[in-house]
Design goal:
This protein is an alpha+beta fold. Helix content is 34%, strand content 31%. The chain has four helices and four strands.
């Protein structure tokens, strides 16, 4: 999938996770807003020191997912960012390397 512009809004804390509304805008101008979820466990895995803002980790994970997953991933009603590991073997390195 081509690189898309990603903007996260409305951070909410849920039981065991943060959720966001992610606005994804493609190079051709198509835009879509989709709910995403970053679990506390994934955040702790990707931000070992805990110094990263959860939204920054969520944005990195979503960008990685968009680069490696098929476009149909955006057809989901909600995206759990743990999915990124299914589509990219180097996801941890990409997300942690920022």
């Amino acid at each position: 999938m081509a690189e898309a512009d990603v903007e996260l809004a409305s951070e909410r804390e849920e039981t065991g996770a943060w959720s966001y509304e992610a606005r994804i805008t493609h190079d051709d101008g198509r835009a879509r807003t989709i709910p995403i979820r970053l679990s506390w466990a994934d955040y702790n895995h990707w931000s070992i020191s805990g110094a990263d803002e959860p939204s920054r980790i969520a944005e990195r994970a979503l960008r990685c997912l968009l680069r490696h997953a098929p476009p149909s991933i955006l057809e989901r009603a909600r995206i759990d960012l743990s999915l990124v590991r299914r589509f990219c073997a180097a996801a941890d390195e990409e997300i942690m390397g920022g």
